[in-house]
Design brief:
InterPro entries: GHMP_kinase_C_sf (IPR036554), Mev_decarb (IPR005935), Mev_diP_decarb (IPR029765), MVD-like_N (IPR053859), Mvd1_C (IPR041431), Ribosomal_Su5_D2-typ_SF (IPR020568), Ribsml_uS5_D2-typ_fold_subgr (IPR014721). This is diphosphomevalonate decarboxylase. Its EC number is 4.1.1.33. Belongs to the diphosphomevalonate decarboxylase family. The longest helix is centred in the middle third of the chain and has 21 residues, at about 205-225. The protein is about 35% helix and about 25% strand. It has helices spanning about 65-80, 105-120, 125-135, 190-200, 205-225, 230-245, 260-270, 295-305; strands at about 1-15, 20, 25, 30-50, 55-60, 60, 85-95, 150, 165-170, 175-180, 275-280, 285-290, 310-315, 320-324. By secondary structure, it is of the alpha+beta class. The chain is built from eight helices and 14 strands. The chain is globular and about 65 Å long. Helix 2 packs across helix 3 (about 125-135). A hairpin with a 2-residue loop joins strand 5 (about 55-60) and strand 6 (about 60). Bound molecules: (3R)-3-hydroxy-3-methyl-5-(phosphonooxy)pentanoic acid.
Length: about 325
């Protein structure tokens, strides 16, 4: 009747960018991520026959009607699966700094999927849990597992073969992921909206699809061989290509700001000095810099000298879902 789950955020090395089905959240391309140790969400779900509607508390405060509606929509999927029609109280704590620009939707929906399914008596694991989390937010399906994770896009119309699979466990390869925050006042184009506009209008989108399938295979090879240089080059190219598609959209848009480019420039300078560090960027201006643990200090030092850098969070590969 009551369950608590913990899920960590993840950062995509090969990006999910575009849906073939908006309702079921089915992607046009497969993607690959690392689950992070530092940022996570803890969620408790309790079903109760006395309740006449769902209620949602976020970081100790009652959430807005809009946020609560999203949770109810997700709980409806769980109620459909379990046959249990009761309403629930959901309490979530996000251990993702709000300033971090990190989407808490991945850890949020992964934790909600795990806690809600368990509280309703469903024994969902792996594949099934990943598919449920996917319905909340695409990237959430990857947060079910720790370490390196692939979201296989699947080919079926009903989404039954679109879920994440673990490809290398957390302890198998330690990397440093420096999440670099910049000052930002720009209004955000949400990933959902950005993807939709790009798929529908960008002539570069076909190029993205073709390249990303190849880059996914190269990244997987690089992970298998623990070839950091190959992985780094591939993930950086993939991120740049994703952002290039937005420039071709109508109306065009982009997520970068001057400070984004400044950080990219510093990382390229580090490489010219022989330090292997690479960037990736999601649907926002902040930059994640990936390097090997032996270079972490040097990279941290260099990035912290940039005026427009507000804060740097150092992350490493983290675990999958757990129940508390
Ligand atoms: O799962 P969403 O809707 O938050 O989309 C995530 C999109 C990117 O962060 C840009 C890429 C990814 O694969 O995480």
């Amino acid at each position: 009747m009551k369950a608590t789950a913990k899920a960590h955020t993840n950062i995509a090395l090969i990006k999910y960018w575009g849906k073939r089905n908006e309702e079921l959240i089915l992607p046009t391309n497969s993607s690959l991520s690392i689950t992070l140790d530092r940022f996570y969400t803890e969620t408790t779900v309790e079903f109760n026959e006395q309740l006449t509607s769902d209620s949602f508390y976020l970081n100790g405060e009652q959430a807005s009607e809009k946020e609560t509606l999203k949770v109810t929509k997700f709980l409806n999927l769980v109620r459909e699966l379990s046959g249990d029609t009761r309403h629930a109280t959901v309490s979530s704590t996000n251990h993702v700094p709000t300033a971090a620009g990190f989407a808490s939707s991945a850890s949020g929906y992964a934790a909600l999927a795990a806690a809600a399914s368990k509280a309703s008596g469903l024994q969902l694991e792996g594949e099934e849990l990943s598919k449920l989390a996917r319905r909340g937010s695409g990237s959430a399906c990857r947060s079910i597992y720790g370490g390196f994770v692939e979201w296989q896009k699947g080919t079926k119309d009903d989404g039954s073969d679109s879920y994440a699979v673990p490809i290398l466990e957390q302890e198998a390869w330690d990397l440093s992921i420096l999440s670099v925050m910049i000052e930002s006042k720009q209004k955000k184009i949400l990933s959902r909206e950005g993807m939709k506009r790009t798929v529908e209008t960008s002539p570069f989108y076909d190029g993205w699809l073709k390249a990303t399938e190849e880059e996914l295979q190269i990244a997987k090879k690089a992970i298998e061989k623990r070839d950091f240089e190959l992985l780094g080059e591939t993930l950086e190219k993939n991120a740049f290509k994703m952002h290039a598609t937005t420039l071709g959209a109508d109306p065009p848009f982009f997520y970068w700001q001057p400070a984004t480019l400044e950080i990219i420039d510093y990382v390229q300078q580090l490489r010219s000095q022989g330090v292997l560090a690479y960037v990736t960027i999601d649907a926002g201006p902040n930059v994640k810099v990936i390097c090997e643990p032996k270079d972490e200090q040097k990279v941290y030092q260099t990035l912290s000298e940039i005026d427009s850098v507000k804060e740097i969070f150092v992350c490493h590969p983290g675990p999958g879902i757990s129940y508390l």
